[in-house]
Amino acid sequence: MNETILKIEGMSCNHCKMSVEKALKGVPGVTDVQVDLAEKQAVVTGSADLAVMSKAVADAGFKVVD
Ligand SMILES: [Cu+2]
What we know:
This protein is of the alpha+beta class. It has helices at 14-25, 50-59; strands at residues 2-9, 30-36, 41-46, 63-65. The chain is globular, with a radius of gyration of 10 Å. Copper (II) ion is lined by residues 12-13, 15-16.
């Protein structure tokens, strides 16, 4: 299992955080997601494709940067 840290723009509250977590947990290969609102990042565990994760975040209304 590997960990990927995604920097995410646009999260401003707990609801945003939950939306991002839900979106990333729906990506095939993702086994766990920990979103840190203050750090504006998500730590994703699993073997998901970065492009698919970025799209899932974008579809939820946020943006993966880097
Ligand atoms: Cu919010």
